[in-house]
Amino acid sequence: MKVAVAGCCHGALDKMYETLELLQRRHNVRPDLLLCCGDFQAVRNEADLRCMAVPAKYRHMQTFYRYYSGEKKAPVLTVFIGGNHEASNHLQELPYGGWVAPNIYYLGYAGVVRFRGVRIGGISGIFKSHDYRKGHFECPPYNQQTIRSAYHVRNIEVFKLKQLKRPMDIFMSHDWPRSIYHYGNKKQLLKMKSFFRQEVESNTLGSPAASELLQHLKPTYWFSAHLHVKFAAFMQHETNSKEELPKATKFLALDKCLPHRDFLQIIEVEHDPNAGDSLEYDAEWIAVLKATNSLVNVTQSSWNMPEKNGLHAKWDYSATEEAIKEVLEELNHNLTIPCNFTLTAACYNPSKPQKNMEPVHTINPQTTEFCAQFGLTDINDRIQQVKEEGSGRGEYEAEEEEEEMDSTGSAEEPSEYSTDNSGLSSINPDEIMLDEEGGDEDLSTCSVDPSPDHPPEFSTSFSDIRIMPDSMAVSSDDAMDSNNEELEKSSASRQGEEKSSTERPLKRISGDENGNSGIKKIKRRNQAIYAAEDEDK
Fold first, then answer.
1. How far does CA 517 lie from the centroid of its chain?
2. Strand 110-115 to 279-281 pairing
3. How many beta carbons lie within 10 A of that of residue 167, not counting itself?
């Protein structure tokens, strides 16, 4: 089975699908499935744009709305995860996953599905330590903090995924697993993106939560995006026992979707020839969701997941064979995900723009049906209940007012990872925003893997194969977020001379009245899209 993998498409669906058609014409390659590793931007209307954490100047409608309205249909089954530039209000409607348009499926905050027998998992968002232990409490309309925290990875999603025991074929995350750069051509990576050097050398680039999942799940393939650079690695995992067969993961980070860029990868994956062509639920994942349903938290309160430390009566929430069998029986052994896509918001009309459209908190019928079928908590329904109860006591408004005054949102107990101390700025603080370099390759150079004429990308891009040493394992004293302020400070002096004469100083939320915060402005990644003065006042 041929699987196409894309990085950040930033709402440019037409461009992405046209590239697939070009591959078919030039190479006679037609993928059976398309995977997208975040920053998908499923924007339906002007209200959705207001829920996307980018400066107002760069809130463009792009082309997703045409697929949402039914004007167009995705030519290939598309499965994606969320990143940090999304219409968060739209994706929030589907915390357990669902169809955002016909033939386009979102995996949810975290999820596992099957297609032709191939097991595909993913986790949405990016890691930020100060939100990691909170519940999914955000709902539209968002404020200046929640529009960002809404896409931050939570420990409950990582905990659920770590309950899985069956083999994983493909896994997706938006940000890279921390330490993965040590298993590829690190020299070439730093040559392309020299701004990564300090974080790579200090082993703080990437997500420690994703690194945990990589070590636990040991998937055959792991795909990421976020940093807008193509990078391949190969990691041989340690075995837990003599009986366990050695496992290895082929990692690939994809570039963003741009004309004349090699932003797609085609891989050949072994599949079940007897399996149907429908996307299917994963029985073990459903059983894990049922087992962990009592752990759902929709408040800002921080808490740790159960562990074997003497403080919890139960810490193992993995699915038993009996629980998996019960799921299969509930579904009459028919795991096909129903094509129950429903419009839940007005679609953008170019001839009748509605610039003042406000986002609302919506309960999606797909989520309602899914929760009813498997006895799960509808997270959005619970959020609304908490909000209504809090409003009745006047507490919810007070919490929001307090949150707006807190620029870091990190006044809490210490996290299992070091706290992120980066303040808010006019540019999304979760971005590293580095320079665009090179990448003028013709689309005909898109990799096709494997064939005699197109050797696998992995075989030529990693410098050596190594077992991960204990020193690189994620621990409770793991250092800072992937996008830390130290990188910004160190890069400032290195790149100050490259400042264009046409660039304006960045406005900041904190600092003195002239916007001086003590941090120099630096050149940033994907500048053509997001690195501009924030006009959202």
1. 30
2. antiparallel
3. 11
Task: Compute the half-sphere exposure of residue 454: CA atoms within 13 Å on the CB side of its CA.
Answer: 15
Does residue 286 lie within any of the structural domains?
A: yes
Residue-level pLDDT at 355: 87
Order across the sheet with 110-115: list the strands: 279-281, 110-115, 118-123, 170-173, 221-224, 248-253, 231-236, 466-467
Concatenated DSSP letters for 454-485? S--HHHHH-S--EEPPGGGS--TT----SS-H
Closest-CA residue to 136 (of 122, 149, 123, 121)? 149
Joined tokens for residue 350: 């170019």
Residue 384 burial (C-beta neighbours within 10 Å; 0-12, 13-18, 19+)? middle
Domain housing 78: 2-393
> Residue 188 and residue 462: Cα distance in Å, rounded?
10
Neighbours of 2 (CB within 10 A): 17
Average pLDDT per block of 10 residues along the chain, 537 residues long: 95 94 91 97 97 88 97 98 97 98 98 98 98 97 96 98 97 97 95 94 96 97 95 90 82 82 85 95 98 96 90 92 98 97 97 92 97 97 90 52 35 39 36 38 32 36 34 35 38 42 38 38 38 36
- pLDDT at residue 363, as a whole number: 96
Main-chain dihedrals φ then ψ at residue 411, nearest 5 degrees: -80, 85
| CB contact at 8 A, 514 and 506 | no
Q: Which of 95, 80, 79, 39 is nearest to 62 (CA)?
A: 39
Look at residue 521 in the predicted model and tell me its pLDDT. Answer: 37
How far apart are alpha carbons 506 and 495 in whole angstroms? Answer: 15
pLDDT at 23: 87
Q: What is the pLDDT of residue 240?
A: 75
Q: Could you tell me the two tokens for 436?
A: 């665009």
Question: Which pLDDT does position 491 carry in this prediction?
Answer: 42
Q: How many CA atoms lie within 13 A of 382 on its CB side?
A: 19
Helix axes 365-374, 321-330, angle to 10 degrees: 120
Classify residue 493: in a domain, yes or no. no
Q: Residue 392: its pLDDT value, please?
A: 63
- The residue count of the chain comes to 537
Prediction pTM value: 0.77
Tokens of 438: 């090179």
Six token digits for residue 206: 């990437």
Can you tell me the distance from the alpha carbon of 179 to that of 532, in angstroms, rounded to the nearest whole number?
31
Contact 117, 271 (CB under 8 A): yes
Tokens of 68: 């949402």
Asked if residue 480 belongs to a domain, the reply is no
Q: How many domains does the chain have?
A: 1
Q: Is the residue at 381 inside a domain?
A: yes
CB neighbours of residue 528 within 10 Å: 10
